[in-house]
Amino acid sequence: MNNPIMIFNDQINNDIYLLRGRSKSAFHPIKRDIRKNGSSYRIRKNDRGLLTIQQPIGFKTKTDEKHIEVVEKLTNWLVTDDWTRLSFSDEPGRIYLAVLQEGIDLEKIAWLREGTLSFVAKETLGQQEIINVTSTTTTDNIVGQEKTPWIVEVTFTQNTSSFELTTNQGLYVLLGYQFIAGDNLVIKYDGREVLLNGHDLRSAVRLKTNYELLQPGTIDISASHDCTLTYDERFH
């Protein structure tokens, strides 16, 4: 059986190997604000916390110079300023948006080095899903366990003065603009971006939108022009 590998920031570090003992909760912690109301209790708020992932690692080195070289490559790989995708080959279908939380204390055992990487993850993702949307209302299924952001993309095949997308989940988009055949339009929930051929279009269009996260379950959806709705599965 092959040893598991860790992929971080779309890269693999071949200097290290994963040791047994990875630890993490089965799901993100939930902090509930519960208030007593007479003889009953009411949940006022649910806050989803960060998931901690502890992964022991090791590497081999016979000289101090090699030790320093491996550690430098390790920090170049793992120290990031923003959330980065983290995955393990023995956890198929799961991707964590994570950052390295702490430093690593390496224990020296002859020419072996061992320590534990500590990550915190803000999201647990699954597969990327794509729904093909047409002018005919269809019923599709949003998979996963948590609400999720989305991206709408359309390449116009003819000139038109508007684009409209409608759902029964509250998500609604209406853009007024003189689109021409070949134009590529991308609308993103994150950042409320509206891009036409890669350029920001928000100040140039008549825009009416209701930006709502997609909810797991069925969705009825249609659009004035064939397009795609893309999202990532999200889990507790």
Overview of this structure, please?
The strands form three sheets. Strands 1, 2, 3, 6, 7, 8, 9, 10, 12, 15, 16, 17 and 20 form a 13-stranded antiparallel sheet that branches. The mean pLDDT is 93. It contains one helix and 20 strands. The longest helix is centred in the N-terminal third of the chain and has 15 residues, at 64-78. The protein is globular, with a radius of gyration of 23 Å. Strand 9 and strand 10 (112-133) form a beta hairpin. By secondary structure, the protein is mainly β. The chain has one helix at 64-78; strands at residues 6-8, 17-18, 23-24, 30-37, 40-48, 51-60, 84-88, 95-100, 107-109, 112-133, 138-142, 151-155, 160-167, 172-179, 184-188, 194-196, 199-200, 206-210, 217-223, 227-235. The protein has two domains: 6-125, Elongation Factor Tu (Ef-tu), domain 3; 134-235, Sandwich (Jelly Rolls), CATH 2.60.120.860. Residues 51-120 form the Siphovirus-type tail component RIFT-related domain. This is Putative phage tail component, N-terminal domain-containing protein.
> Radius of gyration, rounded?
23 Å
Second rung of CATH, namely the architecture of the largest domain? Beta Barrel
The helical percent reads under 10%
Largest sheet data: 13 strands, antiparallel
Short note summarizing the structure:
Residues 51-120 form the Siphovirus-type tail component RIFT-related domain. This protein is mainly β and 236 residues long. Helices cover 6% and strands 54% of the residues.
Question: Could you list some keywords that capture this structure?
Answer:
single chain; 236 residues; mainly beta; Elongation Factor Tu (Ef-tu), domain 3; Jelly Rolls; 2 domains; 13-stranded antiparallel sheet; 5-stranded antiparallel sheet; 1 helix; 20 strands; globular
